[in-house]
Design goal:
The chain is an alpha+beta fold. It has a domain of 88 residues: Roll (Structural Genomics Hypothetical 15.5 Kd Protein In mrcA-pckA Intergenic Region, Chain A). It has 9 helices and 5 strands. Strands 2-1-3-5-4 form a 5-stranded antiparallel beta sheet. Strand 1 and strand 2 form a beta hairpin.
């Protein structure tokens, strides 16, 4: 599967905000966004006022970069949310929040979504007792996300938990046990989204 392999700090600078793509490093002075918060590229020439299309596009790109999805997958999520009942924007963000890599990250098992994807791909995470190695897997209320009971998996996750103090959203809960475990309590709602986003701009762009 295709993926972005370039410098991720460049994405933060392009979107004009910290996307926390490098985990705890983004909270240190080493963060490139703190040192250079200007957009990437040649700085001598500045364009004028951003167009209406550019504003809509930037909002969509920001969400794609934040959750680590590519254009084709994002379009599929939009089509899925457009068919569902209710607010399309809220449904779209709920689908993105329900991705297994996002849930593993927000439970504190991975420092970033990229690291959470790696944990899932390498078989360190189980869902309801079964190994799931698909980062885009959609969790459901009642699902139990647990670290695989082997030394390597436990050491990786415990090191991540010790290095960061992440606030767990209300739709998830972490069980303090010998084997790190998280429960999905309900479907995520608009207030559970951890990035400020104007969903209406995204829907207007994708519906063209």
């Amino acid at each position: 599967m295709a993926r972005y392999n370039g410098p991720v700090c460049r994405l933060c600078r392009r979107d004009g905000m910290k996307l926390f793509l490098k985990g705890t490093r983004c909270d240190t002075p080493k963060c490139a966004f703190e040192r250079r918060d200007s957009p990437p590229g040649v700085q001598q020439f500045r364009r004028g006022k951003q167009t209406d299309y550019g504003i809509h596009l930037r909002e969509k790109q920001k969400v794609k970069h934040y959750y680590g999805v590519l254009e084709r997958q994002f379009r599929r999520y939009y089509q899925q949310s457009a068919r569902a009942m209710g607010n399309t924007g809220d449904t779209l963000m709920s689908i993105l929040e329900r991705r297994l890599d996002n849930v593993v990250h927000r439970l504190g098992f991975g420092q970033s979504r990229a690291q959470a994807r790696q944990l899932i791909n390498h078989g360190h995470i189980t869902v309801n007792g079964h190994r799931v190695d698909i980062p885009s897997y959609q969790v459901r209320p009642g699902d139990i996300i647990r670290v695989k009971n082997r030394a390597k998996s436990l050491d990786l996750v415990r090191a991540n938990q010790a290095e960061q103090q992440r606030q767990v959203p209300d739709f998830l809960s972490v069980i303090e046990a010998d084997i790190p475990e998280g429960h999905v309590l309900r479907l995520p709602e608009a207030e559970d989204v951890s990035i400020p986003v104007e969903t209406q701009l995204i829907i207007e762009l994708c519906s063209r």
